[in-house]
Amino acid sequence: MTRILHLTDLHFGFHRAALEEPLLARIAALRPDLVVIGGDITHRALPAQMRQARAFLDRIEAPLMCMPGNHDVPAWNLWRGCSGPLRGSGSISVPC
Predict the structure, then answer these.
(1) Which DSSP letter does residue 96 get?
(2) 94, 68 in Cβ contact below 8 A?
(3) What is the chain's pLDDT, residue by residue, as a tens digit (96 residues)?
(4) Confidence (pLDDT) at 96
(5) d(Cα 35, Cα 64) in Å, to the nearest integer?
């Protein structure tokens, strides 16, 4: 049986850092075949928040699939939203 774990609204930059270790331990204990991160990975799509999210997601051993949410697109700078940290090679690139 395939195990898929879904996490949503992590909001790095507005998250509770004390919960990171327990969450990572729980993910490891569940041994999912895939972890899906759905929306609002960061709180305001700032570069520092993207780095926080990246550091956290790098510690998950299962394969990841990420889908950005409205908080993952810089609201105050449309150009950065199209060309900044979410820009990828032909597709949107988020911390996964």
Answers:
(1) -
(2) yes
(3) 999 999 999 999 988 889 999 999 999 999 999 999 988 999 888 889 989 999 999 999 999 999 888 888 776 655 655 565 555 433 344 455
(4) 54
(5) 5
Phi, psi (5° rounding) for residue 12?
Answer: -60, 135
Give one word for 40, left, alpha or beta, with left for phi > 0 and alpha for psi -120 to 50.
left
Compute how many other C-beta atoms are within 10 angstroms of the C-beta atom of residue 30: 11
What residues pair up with 64 in beta bridges, in sequence order? 35
Question: Vertex 85, ends 63 and 61: CA angle to 5°?
Answer: 15
**pTM for the whole thing?**
0.74
C-alpha to C-alpha distances, 16 to 5, 43, 56, 64, 91, nearest whole angstrom: 20, 12, 12, 21, 30
Q: How far apart are CA 59 and CA 46, in angstroms?
A: 21
